[in-house]
Amino acid sequence: MKSTSADSRLVTPLQSPRLVHLPEPVLAHACRWAQQHSPRESCALLTGRRSNNSLSVHRLIPCHNQVDLAHQHRAFAIDPMEVLSAEDQALEEGEQLIGLMHSHSLAPARPSAADITSARSWPQTLWLILGPDGDGRIEARAWWADGESLHELSFSRPVPTHLLWSANS
């Protein structure tokens, strides 16, 4: 019998997906959750499925931002117990925990330096970020954490702008 090294038994990282399927009801839920908490950062977990080069988000599970209230306008943290609970719920429904969502109240929907650092703890994960665009509206953008950085993904269809709200509301 051929022996195997420990390295050969490690799980190979998944190839980065190219598309995110984000149903309108899930995006609407994310927008409502983020708007409820503005100007603080909101956070949630995303369940769904991965197939070939795409991710299909099926559900958003709102979470409590664990960062102290004084810093919630620029940071978020999710309780590990909420992560475990969401993962159990996803498995019961034949799905996976595929990502997280959070909002930026004062910065664009691009990863901050803190997001990039945090993404190293969430490898192989979709990051959905909501934040203000340059025209005073909120935009949604998707990112893939590869263990080192975050890379932008495309949505399978345009994000419906009627679900997004004014950053000034």
Question: What report would you give on this structure?
Answer:
With 169 residues, this protein is an alpha/beta fold. It has a single domain, classed as Cytidine Deaminase, domain 2. It contains three helices and seven strands. A seven-stranded mixed barrel has the order 1-3-2-4-5-6-7. Strand 5 and strand 6 (138-145) form a beta hairpin. The protein is globular. The protein starts with 18 loop residues before the first strand and ends in a 14-residue tail after the last strand.
Task: Summarize the topology.
Blueprint lengths: L18 E3 L2 H14 L5 E9 L2 E10 L16 H13 L3 E8 L9 H7 L5 E8 L5 E8 L4 E6 L14
Parallel strand pairs: 1-3, 1-7, 4-5
Antiparallel strand pairs: 2-3, 2-4, 5-6, 6-7
Strand content: 25-35%
Q: How are the strands ordered across the major sheet?
A: 1-3-2-4-5-6-7
Order of helices and strands: EHEEHEHEEE
Regarding quaternary structure, what we see is: single chain
- What top-tier CATH class fits best? Alpha Beta
Q: Would you tell me the structural class of the helices and strands?
A: alpha/beta
Number of domains: 1
Let me know the CATH homologous superfamily: Cytidine Deaminase, domain 2
Distance from N terminus to C terminus (CA atoms, Å) equals: 67 Å
